[in-house]
Design goal:
eleven-stranded mixed sheet, elongated, about 375 residues, mainly beta, disordered N terminus, 5 helices
Length: about 375
Amino acid sequence: MNTRFMNWKISILMTAVCLLFNDCVQQYVSPYKSPPTGYLVVDGYISGNGVTQYSLTRTIPLPGDSTVPVVTGAQLQVEGTDNSVYPLSELGNGQYSVASLSLSTTVKYRLRITIPGGETYLSEYVPYLATPPIDSVNWIQAGDGVTIYTNTHDPTNSTRYYQWTFDQTYEYTSAEYSEDYYDTAAETVVQRTPEQQIFYCWKHIPPTSIVVGTSTQLAQDVIYEFPLVTIPPNSQELTVEYSILVTQYALTDSGYIFLSQMAATSQSLGSIFDAQPTEITGNIQSLSNPAEPVIGYIQAGDVQQQRIFINNYQIHNWVYYNTCPGKDTLVGNNPSAEQHFFGELGYIPLHFQYPPPFAGWISDVAECVDCTLQGGTTQKPAFWPF
C-alpha cells in the first residue's frame, strides 16, 4: 500500500492553516506532544503476488523542519497464523522488502517490527484478501483537462472496499535542441552523441494522495469510472507521451475507514478543529507502551496493476508553451568567446551558424536547453513503448 506520502502530511496538518496563508497573525501550537523522535509511521502492504515493501519513518515534531526522519537498522517480519515467518531485508533509507511470499487466503498475517533499542511493534492479524483484477483504465478529455478513471468488479461481491495508487511518468522536451556541447577539459565545442542528448526527458510523479472507494451502496460489487487524477489543460504532462501505472488493493472495512479518515484529514486543511491524526487509530501498537500512537494500518492481499499510455496526438487542442526568457545568443567562433559564454556563463551551444561574417555558435541559457533542469532524466524507462 503506497501511502508513504502520509508521513509528511501528518506532520503539517495541525499547522496547515498558517502555512497556507501569509496573513496568519498567531502561531498555532499543537496540543499533541509527540516524543522527541516523533511517532512511528509504518507504510506498506503485505502481498503474495508481488513485492512486499514497507517504509519506516517518524512524524516531525511541531514546529520543525521538513526533513522526514527514516528508521534504519530495524528488523521486520511477516508472521502467519500457520506459524510461518517471512523476514524482510533492509534496502536503506528506511525501506524494507522481500521479493515474493507464498501466502494463502486461509491464513491471517501480521507484521512485527523491532527497531534499534529493542522496542517492538506488532500489528493485529489481518485476513489475506483476493484482490480482483482491474478491468480497465480509461480517460476522458473535457473542459477541465484529461481525467483518468479505473474500473473493476468482483463477481463474488466479497471485496467492496478498494484502494488505488498511481505512478505517473511522462516524456517532455526542452525548449531548444542542442547538437553540441562545450568540453571544458579540451576547451572546445564538440558534437553530442545520442547518449549525451538533453532534449528528451522523462519525469516520474510518485503517488501523493490517498484514494479509496467502495461499492457498498450498490447491489453488485462494481467500480465504474472511478476518477483517479485529472491533468489540467495544456499542462506539460501530455505534450509528448504520458503513462500511468494504476495499482489496486483490496481492503477490509476497518482498513477502508482508517484510510478514509486519513484522506479526509489530509484534504480538509481549512480548520484546526478537524479530526487530528492522533485521533485516528490504526492496527499497530507498541508492546511495551500500548498507548503510544503508531501511524499506519497493516493490510494483506493480492496486488493488481494496469498501465496505459496517452499520446499527444490522441487529445485535442493541447498546447503547452515551452518558452525561453530571452533570444538566442550568437557566440563567436573563437576560444575566448567560447570559454566566456560556455565555460563561465553556462550557455549551451545549439548549432553552428554559417556563413561569415556572422559565423558562430547559436546558443541559449541552460534552462532552455537542458531538459534535466526541469526535474526529469534523459534515461528512457524500460517500459516506454518507443
